[in-house]
Write a structure and sequence with these properties.
The protein has about 55 residues and is α+β, with helices and mostly antiparallel strands. The chain has one domain: Alpha-Beta Plaits. Helix content is about 20%, strand content about 25%. It has 2 helices and 4 strands; from the N terminus they run E-H-E-E-H-E. A two-stranded antiparallel ribbon has the order 1-4. The longest helix is centred in the first third of the chain and has 5 residues. The chain is globular. The mean pLDDT is about 95.
């Protein structure tokens, strides 16, 4: 499963985008969006998110 972003919690800091080894995160309207087909479900983005807006299930 791909990582999921809670858009209401996301502050658009882009920390997750820089941390993603698969380059599977893009910013849309100031919020992180996971490209599910590219996501490795590694959890690096979730670990780096300063506001806890990303989960990996």
């Amino acid at each position: 499963m791909a990582a999921k972003v809670d858009a209401e919690q996301c502050v658009g800091c882009e920390t997750c985008k820089g941390a993603c080894p698969a380059e599977a995160i893009e910013m849309v309207d100031g919020k992180a969006v996971i490209k599910e087909d590219a996501c490795l479900s590694c959890g690096v983005c979730a670990g780096e998110c300063p506001v806890g807006a990303i989960t990996v299930e």
